[in-house]
Automatic annotation (TrEMBL):
Keywords for the protein's UniProt record, in alphabetical order: Hydrolase, Signal
Reactions accelerated catalytically: Hydrolyzes the link between N-acetylmuramoyl residues and L-amino acid residues in certain cell-wall glycopeptides
Positions of transmembrane segments: none
CDD domains listed in its UniProt record: MurNAc-LAA (cd02696)
Pfam families: Amidase_3, AMIN
Signal peptide span: 1-18
MurNAc-LAA domain span: 277-433
GO molecular function, one term: N-acetylmuramoyl-L-alanine amidase activity
Gene3D superfamilies: 2.60.40.3500, Zn-dependent exopeptidases
Organism, as annotated: Bradyrhizobium jicamae
One term under GO cellular component: outer membrane-bounded periplasmic space
UniProt record, GO biological process: peptidoglycan catabolic process
Protein name per its UniProtKB record: N-acetylmuramoyl-L-alanine amidase
EC code: 3.5.1.28
Length: 447
């Protein structure tokens, strides 16, 4: 594992985000100090603000200033810089986080710097994340560590620098100092506290009967540091549009009482793609619906309307491939290794997804298009397929719905309209009910 992490250290040599979860560190050869590798924990760094790209031909680093200092049992950060660098730090969990990575840089900070925070942080963030690298993300105030980390040099008139430190810890010594493959499943502290203080009346309460209603998983795309597509100079973000839509869809479906709805996220949290798939599988979902909004890159013309995607090894067309590539970068932005595709999925993907599950996914996509087209403007090619990682649950029919293009004025007006949202939610809820009623009638009752 350590050698794999080292291959991913220099930014640009594989997704900069590789959450190899070892706190492996690379420090400029001229650095004044090098700390030993630190504990890390799995899953999902916090937000990275989109810093502007440095001008072409600029000699990168730079970054001037940052700060934070002690306490709540240590802390510190500090950045400054103009030169030494090469770094990588890490520590994640279900938030918590740290992450650093770097080169490319050139932030030239103040103005809200890390939007406050101090004692074991609770905020920060910074930019670029590809082509040549950068990042920094902190958030925390829950089990920390890293305790030292460095670069320094350039001495008494100060800069360069970097530094980092933090400390405090536990949550069972940060899940026993991790790997054995990125442990958590020792779920957050609330679960631990509940286990430690059982309800005295539990013994007298009859067990609730199991809820045998079919499960629909709704997956609002992106979240946390992964903003998705943006419009209005960055004021309108895909992650917020699709969360609002997903919650409205949940409420509509739940009103029928026929289905149990599980959300992959209900707030602005980064969820790795593989974890979204795990939610669907662990809930034995009858259906997985991932909600997104698209945008065409500037200079590539205009497009409009909703599109429904299913999984295939080969993209329907170049636009489907572009979109799959963009959506599959979500983990790169969030700090998760794209090499960590679950082997169980890889082993049975062709055997299962391309047969029964793929058939059901395609059938649902057609039902969904039939309902949506009466209330929603659809793309001229409304049914497409490509290799979306989030659709790779081998035993759960799955679709990804792009509600429209934030790069198109008309679609954007719809996407921010409550009236349009309510109509679209209604048509999607009807499609889900139509599909599941037929499928469950042929499958027989739940066991």
């Amino acid at each position: 594992m350590a050698s794999r992490a080292n291959l991913l250290v220099l930014l640009g040599c594989g997704p900069l985000c590789a959450a190899a979860l070892l706190c492996t560190q690379m420090i400029s050869p001229s650095a004044a100090q090098v700390a030993a590798p630190q504990v890390a924990a799995p899953q999902a760094p916090a937000s990275v603000a989109a810093a502007p790209s440095p001008a072409a031909g600029s000699n990168f680093p730079v970054a001037s200033d940052a700060r934070l200092a002690g306490d709540a049992r240590q802390t510190r950060f500090i950045l400054d810089l103009d030169k030494p660098v090469q770094f990588r730090a890490f520590a994640l969990a279900d938030p918590y986080r740290v992450i650093v990575d770097l080169p490319q840089v050139s932030f030239t900070l103040p103005a809200g710097v890390g939007a406050t925070g101090r004692g074991l942080v609770k905020a920060f963030r910074y930019g670029l994340v590809m082509p040549g690298g950068s990042r920094i993300v902190f958030d925390l105030t829950g089990p920390a560590k890293i305790a030292k980390s460095y670069v320094l040099e350039a001495a008494n008139g100060q800069p360069p620098r970097l530094v980092i430190e933090f400390e405090e810890m536990d949550r069972t010594a940060f899940v026993q100092a991790l790997p054995p493959e990125n442990r958590p499943e020792l779920r957050p502290a609330i679960a631990e506290a509940n286990a430690a203080t059982p309800d005295a009346s539990a013994a007298t309460k009859p067990a609730a009967p199991p809820d045998k209603r079919p499960v629909v998983v709704i997956d609002p795309g992106h979240g946390g540091e992964d903003n998705g597509t943006q419009a209005g100079g960055g004021d309108i973000m895909e992650k917020n549009l699709v969360l609002t839509f997903g919650l409205a869809l949940r409420d509509k479906i739940e009103k029928s009482g026929k289905y149990r709805v599980v959300m992959t996220r209900t707030d602005d949290t980064f969820i790795p793609l593989a974890d979204r798939v795990k939610v669907a599988r662990s809930e034995a979902a009858a259906l997985f619906v991932s909600i997104h909004a698209d945008a065409l890159p500037r200079g590539e013309g205009d497009a409009q309307g909703a599109t429904i995607y299913t999984l295939s090894d080969k993209a329907t067309d170049s636009e489907a491939q572009r979109l799959a590539d963009a959506e599959n970068k979500s983990d790169a932005i969030g700090g998760v290794s794209l090499a960590d595709e679950p082997t169980e999925v890889a082993d049975i993907l062709i055997d299962l997804v391309q047969r029964e599950t793929k058939t059901f996914s395609n059938r649902f996509a057609r039902v969904l298009m039939g309902e949506m087209k009466s209330t929603v403007r659809m793309h001229k090619h409304p049914l497409k397929s490509a290799g979306f990682r989030v659709l790779k649950a081998p035993d759960v029919p799955s679709v990804l719905v792009e509600l429209g293009y934030v790069s198109n004025k008309g679609d954007l007006e719809h996407l921010v309209s409550e009236n349009w949202r309510n109509r679209t939610v209604g048509s999607m809820a009807q499609a889900i009910d139509t599909f599941l009623a037929k499928r469950l009638a042929t499958a027989g009752p739940a066991k």
